[in-house]
Amino acid sequence: xxxxxxxxxxxxxxxxxxxxxxxxxxxxxxxxxxxxxxxxxxxxxxxxxxxxxxxxxxxxxxxxxxxxxxxxxxxxxxxxxxxxxxxxxxxxxxxxxxxxxxxxxxxxxxxxxxxxxxxxxxxxxxxxxxxxxxxxxxxxxxxxxxxxxxxxxxxxxxxxxxxxxxxxxxxxxxxxxxxxxxxxxxxxxxxxxxxxxxxxxxxxxxxxxxxxxxxxxxxxxxxxxxxxxxxxxxxxxxxxxxxxxxxxxxxxxxxxxxxxxxxxxxxxxxxxxxxxxxxxxxxxxxxxxxxxxxxxxxxxxxxxxxxxxxxxxxxxxxxxxxxxxxxxxxxxxxxxxxxxxxxxxxxxxxxxxxxxxxxxxxxxxxxxxxxxxxxxxxxxxxxxxxxxxxxxxxxxxxxxxxxxxxxxxxxxxxxxxxxxxxxxxxxxxxxxxxxxxxxxxxxxxxxxxxxxxxxxxxxxxxxxxxxxxxxxxxxxxxxxxxxxxxxxxxxxxxxxxxxxxxxxxxxxxxxxxxxxxxxxxxxxxxxxxxxxxxxxxxxxxxxxxxxxxxxxxxxxxxxxxxxxxxxxxxxxxxxxxxxxxxxxxxxxxxxxxxxxxxxxxxxxxxxxxxxxxxxxxxxxxxxxxxxxxxxxxxxxxxxxxxxxxxxxxxxxxxxxxxxxxxxxxxxxxxxxxxxxxxxxxxxxxxxxxxxxxxxxxxxxxxxxxxxxxxxxxxxxxxxxxxxxxxxxxxxxxxxxxxxxxxxxxxxxxxxxxxxxxxxxxxxxx
Length: 765
Ligand SMILES: [Zn+2]
Ligand SMILES: [Zn+2]
Known about the structure:
Shape: globular
Largest sheet: 11 strands, mixed
Number of helices: 24
Structural class: alpha/beta
Bound molecules: zinc ion
């Protein structure tokens, strides 16, 4: 009898395959603990393409087990799919975690770096061997992408390889019930990497001293270089003019806004507005810099005259420990680089570069292998949008419904990025900076090589921008030269913006696209940048665009908005512009202005551009807000910040033969200036005009084509006022409006759009 019962109760063997972000986030031990809880026998194993397990279970047991896997998965993991297969019975007498297997050629998902978790923050106070250990981590948190050299994700393939675990750490690492079971970077005060501070008073590895001295320095006007997760930060007290001024001097530039790290949400609330969604974004394990509406001033030089501040919360144990000692509620945390070069990652280079120019350098002796800057995001009508995709995001893939295998998008120029396709996954590189100098290009190429290795990628189709002179286009040409089997196609910049939004939002077929930005190479050889198009993945039809205007001095005109101001005024008033009584005309000499008008008349170094960015520049300059830009999109950002939200008025424009002329807008703007109207009113009326234009064109196009799906793309839509108003107005008229969420709407997103277009064109090749 007894035996018979045992046979009827004999369970089946099920194989469960899980795909998604399940490596390096404590997934296997999580599975183990649940299996033990449910008294199931079998095993679990990491594969390059996910996690696979087999269990002996009855149908009910299997379902209960499955439900817990789905509902209680570790915070930073994400399950994309789960497949359950019934197998012939296999006898297991225990549940075990099996060693990782390297299945080359298959896709791997590597976890992005994860902010220190709350449990580790508690351990930081309570665990004797990790008391104040500044590199504490566990399977739920800590460095990942930044330290990984190769797959599978095992300690020996990370920059932790050279640190031998002490017996305590080793026993935790080997204990299935411990949160540090197989935590690859596990370490403690006895065996792990250590911090070091070098400053004018000496050199110390005593951590208590490091924190004390750093906090004393940062209480004053010191500037420090501090090694972060994916690179160095330049750090100073956000409330000390002296520190901020030093930082500005060292970075040799401009008014580019600086990011802040606040001790806590509560402290940040005094200075910025934070709603529920923004709070969640700030506190997420990705810990991006979040752009938040400013409530009050901090210190001059941080983000002068801008509407938003970039804010983040502590994400490394060191940050938390430092803030315990610091009185200031916020530090400036700026990327540790010079001007437009990539963020520094090596201790030696940082000492070389910053050495005498900072008051202290804090390093630790674990190498950063993959450089990864802080990410930036903003919450737009309750939806987080990533604007710079780097730490916390890279190298997590974006899933698509179509096959991207073997396709590489090489991206554009500004905010450089490439994107490679493996099966249905788009793998975006982290932000690599503006591809305008050798250093950033070197970073781009190096990241490309590493991605190829990590993701077992080799391209069969390379997609680049139409612009022949972009370094990213040259890179595509070189790949094809080296391997003639690779096919190469070029894609128009603004089409790629729309395709990028479509890919991210899972759209098929055709959409109406508004692709607004500074500039991109047009299909007609002119510069484009304000394109209204009917677009699908294969192709696009340009329906409307802003009137072409001369860019006096070419590239100079993008750095000097006053030149665009003169160009627009010249378009409207001709030589009479000299008689206008507006600030722009008063702030420049007649000689300067004549130089610009001469360039326009003689067509010397004055390409034509249809550009939203340049229109913003011109209006900002005519309003007297910005004549010379010290960073990208400065004039548009100042113009947005100037808006008086109560002003509902707008200006006029003309549409003729598919071209939108803003000559009427410029004339009315000048009248308002003559009448002494304030800049808040001018800025609001200007923005309202664009919102009205987008609505009018959408209605007109829908009336003809029936198209009611709209995709917004291009850097101009980082303008929150504009995007929110456009969404409001269009949705009120029952349009379906899409912005990308996980892919930056700016030029970093171009590579993903190229990938999507390439995937569809390939089918026709
Ligand atoms: Zn942890
Ligand atoms: Zn240890």
